[in-house]
């Protein structure tokens, strides 16, 4: 694999993952409530989705990308419903109950939930296409270069989520139940608001 393309992909994956959106809020909340591993699993779900969309953009799978973009409103609707559900669930949850559920819930649920949420935002493909163009990667020379770029995208995105979840988890021991209750309220409202926004773009299409 080309190290040059991996490094470019790393920069792209990191820069696309870094802006704080609903997944970032969810990762922060889970890292505080449930620990670094759950927070990282949350982020890796998003990193996998980023790599998937990066793969579609890098390999020029126009039929797939066109289908996803053409159905972005319905995908956004599904994502919005799920965000609203998560927001309400987090807002109404008890810190003690949530921590008890962690041990049985596992990493897979955290990973799959954010994988689904990120995949319901196919406009990410356009973000990758725009960033690829900005890096002068509009036409990749071969499949090896495209594969190297996608690997770099995943590494860059995963690196951001590792830094975020690890950094936030450092404060876990300092957060008592009353603070966690407030965090649940705030993060639940923020995630619910993202869901309402996603639904509004579908409603006013």
Structural commentary:
This protein is mainly alpha-helical and about 200 residues long. It has one domain (about 5-70, about 95-175). About 85% of the residues lie in helices and about 0% in strands. Helix 2 runs antiparallel to helix 3 (about 35-60), helix 3 (about 35-60) runs antiparallel to helix 8 (about 145-170) and helix 5 runs antiparallel to helix 6. The radius of gyration is 18 Å and the shape is globular. It starts with a helix and ends with a helix. The model is unreliable at about 95-105 (pLDDT under 50).
Low-confidence stretches: 96-104
The domain tally reads 1
Largest sheet, strands/sense/barrel: none
Rg, Cα atoms, Å: 18 Å
Mean pLDDT equals 80
What coarse outline follows from CA principal-axis ratios? globular
Helix residue percentage: over 70%
Q: Structural class of the helices, strands and pairings?
A: mainly alpha
- Helix-strand pattern, N to C? HHHHHHHHH
